[in-house]
Amino acid sequence: MxxxxxxxxxxxxxxxxxLEYILRDGLHCKNAGKTNKGFVTIGSKDIITQRDxxxxxxxPDTVVNDYVPFYFSVRTPMLYxxxxxxxxxxxxxxxxxxxxxxxxxxxxxxxxxxxxxxNAAKAITxxxxxxxxxxxxVDWRSINSTDFRDANADGDEDRVRKKHAEFLVKDHVPxxxxxxIAVLNNTIKKQVETILEKFDLSIDxxxxxxxYFLWNT
Length: 217
What we know:
8 helices, 10 strands
């Protein structure tokens, strides 16, 4: 059965400490320079630097850091690295929240966008501009897998890169496109709802433990 594109979600993981900052003006790409002293960076500095030089092949006059990145997957190797401190400063898993978006609401003429078949920082990763080939160009087995060990059950040595397939939106995504927010537990849910009230925003907040590593809660 063909994939229903209307049911595809994309996700941006952020520390809850950045939520107020993002709610003021939406998500900006790294190269926009829209940060402040309190902004918490959770990505690998080495990977971020690579993205400064990696050309987006759909739009060859741009680099990856000209885009706001989203993942198709949850419970990613990136999240694993954050909660274990592997290559990045460790952070409590409960502090990481998901901003959830509908793919079809971002893949419109309102934005300059594309998607990849893996981590956009990697040289072998391919970029695509047409949604009608997303079913075949993205490895959905890797996206949905929770087994991303080097010695995973499928023997797929490229799984980590493919699980980090991305949807990229140039420059800026306004807050109005956030469909809902996913969190680990009720305590964080209440904190997020309190922040949303400060901005007079009505965005549903859901507890989604399957988005997290339950051995680290």
